[in-house]
């Protein structure tokens, strides 16, 4: 067998092995983010965000990478956002999205109801503090436009994380940069095009002295599922809360008798502020 044939077989084998390895990695990435969960590294990990037509999903994945400076420095944990497409019932075509400069993190993506914008948290240069909430337009080819910081009505000098969209314009997120009930509290703001209302704390029936990460509402039942670490030994779990009710109901961990925060932001009129998002390079 000639050297050229051996070389060709070797290269082919390397390519096949590389494709197989990437395929396995892709499956693991999707499996880890399909329904969310709890990570020993990141704590609560939200499930991947899927477009209304069910054809596109966004999720984040963390990996240890060499820092930009310091040859002998330890590797740093960097979060990156990925996009996947559903083809013939299978998630495939996994692509890393360029939403922030290298060596910065972007995580917790959530896609708008119309599939035209992606909200996420990032610690990129230009943030108000640690992690801020950003938004980027989703182009027709699937790529993203310039990432834009939502500004001081949402972001603070501390962390803002876990954005999620409800009913088209209501943006929920977790923040530890405001005076609240302790740890991460859940807040909400109404977002329409490039304008937003001041953020509102969802109140003491939803937030606690522990960390609250996310909320999912069920309007028909007037119930919400809150993800929090208020459990024994800071166990992260879901807790059922009721809103818009005046009487306590048995079987719930917390029930709202006074839910001014959540009701305020849900009933806000369309008189939005004129502040536009600031472009971040």
TrEMBL record:
InterPro entries attached to this UniProt entry: 6-blade_b-propeller_TolB-like (IPR011042), WD40 (IPR011659)
Signal peptide: 1-23
Signal keyword on record: yes
UniProt KW keywords: Signal
Superkingdom assignment: Bacteria
Coiled-coil region: none
UniProt-recorded name of the protein: Cell envelope biogenesis protein OmpA
Native organism taxonomy: Bacteria, Pseudomonadati, Bacteroidota, Flavobacteriia, Flavobacteriales
């Amino acid at each position: 067998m000639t050297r050229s044939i051996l070389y060709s077989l070797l290269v082919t084998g390397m390519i096949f092995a590389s494709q197989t390895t990437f395929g396995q990695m892709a499956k693991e990435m999707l499996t880890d983010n399909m329904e969310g969960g709890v990570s020993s590294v990141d704590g609560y990990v939200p499930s991947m965000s899927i477009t209304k037509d069910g054809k596109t999903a966004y999720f984040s994945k963390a990996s240890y990478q060499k820092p930009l400076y310091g040859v002998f420095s330890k590797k740093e944990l960097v979060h990156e956002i990925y996009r996947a497409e559903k083809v013939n019932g299978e998630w495939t075509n996994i692509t890393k999205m360029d939403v922030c400069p290298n060596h910065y993190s972007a995580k917790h993506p959530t896609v708008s109801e119309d599939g035209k914008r992606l909200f996420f948290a990032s610690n990129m240069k230009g943030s108000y503090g640690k992690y801020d909430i950003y938004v980027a337009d989703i182009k027709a080819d699937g790529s993203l436009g310039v990432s834009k910081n939502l500004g001081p009505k949402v972001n603070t000098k501390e962390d803002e994380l876990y954005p999620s969209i409800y009913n088209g314009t209501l943006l929920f997120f977790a923040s530890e940069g405001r005076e609240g009930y302790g740890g991460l509290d859940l807040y909400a703001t109404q977002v329409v095009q490039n304008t937003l209302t001041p953020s509102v704390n969802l109140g003491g029936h939803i937030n606690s002295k522990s960390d609250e990460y996310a909320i999912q509402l069920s309007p028909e039942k007037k119930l919400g599922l809150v993800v929090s670490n208020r459990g024994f030994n800071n166990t992260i779990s879901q807790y059922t809360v009721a809103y818009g009710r005046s009487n306590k109901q048995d079987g719930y961990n917390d029930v709202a008798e006074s839910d001014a925060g959540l009701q305020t932001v849900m009933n806000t009129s369309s008189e939005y502020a004129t502040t536009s998002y600031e472009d971040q390079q």
